[in-house]
Design a protein that fits this description.
alpha/beta; globular; 12 strands; single chain; about 30% helix; 13 helices; signal; Rossmann fold; 10-stranded mixed β-sheet
Length: about 425
């Protein structure tokens, strides 16, 4: 039986306390290029031998091994000790800039295999950008007891669907961060690399009402694999659900009927680990709920970076795909001083971290394309309730607007404990 950081069995209900002790603070202009990406939905090959799967597992593990060195980098993050029942037995870290305003955005960042939260932050530059722009960060972190290579288990249904496993743990972390730091429920975003990108896909599909947008870097579509052999076939671009089934997976992942998160996809054209065809499959999957045509409405290029955008009926960018020519497997970095190159953290002349934040409207205000206010919230002049009833929403909003007391106060710790537990219960995340 897996156990969470608190020692509680998976699925157990844990009462907890939490306190606010720390406040630290896209190479051409051809629209058709996207069609040249191999179609992941063209047929399914015969089932591969288990020996082939084992051989690929061994090769991937050897290729990923150097990444473990990032665990020794300077850690600017703080542990999020308790955040609900934690059925996925994950750990969590966070970063909140000094003097952050109430109602600030929250970005959830998911590392790749063999990486750590601190290592990914150090190389991607997310906490550095958060200090510049004033938003909060949450870094869920995989544990070796769950996956020996520290990959998020995006291919296991019990960990990648709404209301269970790692997905629910991440949802609980988000609710805890929002309640503790008075963050804006209308501006919650998620991003991830590789297995983290695939888990970001799972979170966006499973909890679409929670996120205003998501960025999937070298990732895969939600539900495209449900076993380890399937996962490796999908990574190589073999087989996979049909277009109709890809879209149905998102539609059936929750009871949500819209509006839907804005999707940003990043992939290297020379990725040997996760085939670029997965970028097209992601576009296909999310075109369904966004009711978009197959051809992008706009394409633009600069150097190695080609960007295709699909606009919705209101003229807003609903999906974008960013292809970096010649880039292998990893997160694109630029020469702007944000982050630092390393294994699978690749200097290709464009900072995906900064570009993603710009598209979300939370950085570089002079160039940003703001995330739209959800129609229902705009009409009512209120923030979305993340599925809460009107009475429950009022209760959560009232508590999260309370001013923060000084750290070290026993009364403050008790008060924040009550706030977080009430918020988790109201959201249906804790009994």
């Amino acid at each position: 039986m897996r156990h969470g950081p608190t020692g509680a069995p998976k699925g157990a209900v844990v009462r907890f306390s939490c306190y606010c002790a720390v406040q630290q603070r896209y190479c051409c202009d051809r629209v058709a290029e996207i069609a040249s990406i191999p179609d992941v939905t063209e047929g399914t090959p015969p089932l591969r031998k288990i020996s082939d799967t084992i051989a690929r597992l061994t090769a991937l593990q050897a290729r990923l091994a150097p990444q473990a060195a990032t665990s020794g980098v300077s850690d600017r993050l703080h542990a999020l000790a308790r955040f609900g029942t934690n059925p996925g037995a994950l750990a969590a870290k966070f970063h909140v800039p000094d003097g952050i305003d109430k109602g600030a955005p929250l970005v959830v960042v998911l590392h790749g295999c063999t990486q750590t939260a601190a290592g990914y932050d150090h190389h991607s530059g997310w906490s550095q950008l958060a200090d510049e722009a004033g938003f909060a960060l949450l870094f869920p972190e995989q544990q070796r007891a769950n996956n020996p290579n520290l990959c998020f288990n995006w291919f296991l249904p019990g960990d990648a669907r709404r209301g269970s496993g790692e997905a629910l743990s991440i949802r609980e972390m988000i609710e805890t961060m929002v309640a503790t730091h008075c963050l804006d429920r209308n501006r919650i975003f998620i991003t991830g690399l590789s297995a983290g990108g695939a888990m970001a896909s799972a979170m966006l599909a499973s909890y679409p009402e929670v996120f205003a947008g998501g960025a999937i870097i070298a990732g895969l579509p939600y539900g495209s694999a449900t076993t380890i052999p399937e996962a490796f076939d999908r990574m190589r671009g073999h087989g996979g659900p049909s277009e109709e089934n890809l879209q149905r997976l998102v539609q059936n992942a929750s009871t949500h009927e819209g509006p839907w998160p804005r999707i940003s996809i990043w992939h290297g054209s020379a990725d040997p680990t996760v085939a670029p065809s997965n970028a097209e499959a992601l576009v296909t999957q999310w075109r369904g709920v966004h009711a978009l045509e197959k051809r992008p409405t706009r394409s633009e290029a600069s150097g190695r970076h080609t960007r295709h955008v699909w606009h919705d009926a209101e003229g807003l960018a609903a999906i974008e795909v960013n292809i970096i020519a010649g880039m292998a497997h990893g997160t694109p970095l630029g020469g702007d001083g944000l982050g630092t190159p390393g294994p699978f953290m690749l200097d290709v002349g464009i900072s995906s971290t900064r570009e993603i934040a710009r598209v979300w409207g939370i950085a570089d205000a002079d160039k940003r394309e703001p995330a739209p206010l959800r129609p229902d919230a705009a009409a009512k002049g209120e923030r979305p309730s993340l599925g809460l009833s009107a009475a429950e929403k009022v209760k959560v909003d009232a508590t999260t607007r309370q001013p923060r007391s000084s750290p070290g106060s026993a009364a403050n710790a008790s008060g924040v404990k009550t706030i977080i537990e009430d918020a988790l219960k109201a959201a249906g995340l804790m009994r």
